[in-house]
């Protein structure tokens, strides 16, 4: 009897271990695919004062407008990152000029790298928490609330109040992701897809797996 219980316990433990390894492998693959498919913009305000938060959005609009002009014909994330690196000083100058023209004198730092992001929804597209390549803009003390969007595919101007991402943006996104990955971020209303999304969130939030480079 004791041997039987022991064998059952061992089998159950092995089963749990197998399930964990399968889930780990799945989340790792999806996290890396999503991270490799998008390029994000991350802006951190000087503080949480209303003036600094308003300034953050003005800087955001000017940077996005400039980036969109530069990348109107880009069809891949790699192209956009290459352009962003070449024009890094321009981004800084635009941010500094915007800040100065609005009556402030905050310094600005610009970094392009792989950074951690929380779960974020853009209209009817949701990205799970994880590490993503991004252009990070720090204003002044960078102690205020964050603002982030997806620069590639172009989701920065999505009107979240309508809950709809333009079809052309979805098409670019779909072309840069696997069918499985695209379903996960675009069909969270489906129960099985929602479970996969939550699974990715759980692993990321617990620090069990990340797509950090």
Give structural notes.
- It is built from 7 helices and 6 strands.
- With 213 residues, it is an alpha+beta fold.
- It has one domain (30-205).
- Strands 2-5-1-6 form a 4-stranded mixed beta sheet, sandwiched between helices. Strands 3-4 form a two-stranded antiparallel ribbon.
- Strand 3 (120-122) and strand 4 (125-127) form a beta hairpin.
- Helix 1 (2-37) packs across helix 7 and helix 2 (50-70) runs antiparallel to helix 4.
- The protein is elongated.
- The termini are far apart.
Structural class determined from secondary elements: alpha+beta
Overall, the morphology is elongated
The poorly predicted ranges are none
Helices and strands, in N-to-C order? HEHHHEEEEEHHH
The helix count comes to 7
Number of separate structural domains = 1
Classify the helix fraction into a percent range.
Answer: 40-55%
